[in-house]
Amino acid sequence: MDRSQWTVLFAAWLGWGFDIFDSLLFNYVAPTCVPVLLRIPLGTPAAAAATLRWTGILTSLLLLGWAAGGIAVGRIADRIGRSRSLIVTMAMYSFGTAACAFAPNIWWLVVFRVVASIGIGGEWVCGAAMVAEIVPEKRRVDAGALLYTAAPMGLFFATFVVYQIQGVYFRGTPEVAWRYVFLSGLIPAAVTLAVRVMIREPERWKKAAEKARPARISELFTPAYIALTFSGASMAMINLLTWWSVNAFIPTVAVGLANRVSAGASAVNVTVLAEQWKALATNAFDAGALIGVLLTIPAAKYLGRRNMFIVYFLGGALSIMAAFGLPLSPETRLYMYFPIGATVWGITAAFAFYLPELYPTRLRGTGAGFCFNLGRIVAAAGPFLVGGIAARGANALDTAMQVLFYVGWVPIVGLLFMPWVIETRNRALPD
Fold this sequence. Notes:
The protein is an all-alpha fold. 79% of the residues lie in helices and 0% in strands.
């Protein structure tokens, strides 16, 4: 790869990393942000109940906006270009997130989060299509997987920034600290200016745009493409449904295990252990994801795309069922998030190269955007379920682990779709 190709990959990497960064900020500040906007005293039972309810609502809206943005922007990227669409989406989620800092009430927060979510959903489509079209054929898998390493990096950066703002600089004023957290969403806006200078439209897209008719979503269901659409959409839907179900339950499981182990201890000790175990589970999940993402490179090249999905889905099912079905010690159960991250989150990287491989250039953004984001519509019901379980108090842990055990059957269902998965190994990117 030459310098210009590395530059495009780096620009898309930044876009996806800050995409994840902006999308997670609300999760960190919800316990203070929601009560303040609803004018409920912090630390009260009413504040806790409102936080659960509105976290579920806003997370589901994030997923729906993410899906809408991914599908709509994919079509736009096929019409006006990858780099232009990338810049627009990065600016949209940057300013949408920063605007949350000025929300006077919960309803304006909803509006700003929806705006940000549309940009967040659209950015992935532009970056994945652009990277697939500009790198050499033999480097497409490597570049697609490297692009997805930005996701765990975005999570690490969000954790660091939130801690510095809420835990160091504004730790004595939680009622205003959350506004500065949302303001940090402007960081990607500054990066957007640099990205605009660094990247150019792929020559492959420019040639296709000169002679191709505009893409339509309805084309994805014509005889020429419906098998491809089913292949991409089914794999993405299974993976995203599993990922969101597992990820959303991490705080519930970690806090529940900490409360059970430290029963009878002081409230301060219980809180400290709960925070430590949340960090342990999250870091294990994140570290596993980074390794799993990189392992998709040899898996896709040597096993092929279909066998790669089989290995990861089977590994994800076994990891989830073992983590929440076996009689493990509490800490061992939390460490089990490492293999879950390596399989359930790791395989998500494959969609950055697999979905663009399915469609010709003029339909690539539309097809990849539709397939990848269809699963988010299904997954949007997850946060409501999580909020309901968490609200059950003492029974939350046992109920959550029981639900998570059965989530392990979702990738098993995905294995049933393998006869219809289109193999794209050793195929050139279609024009």
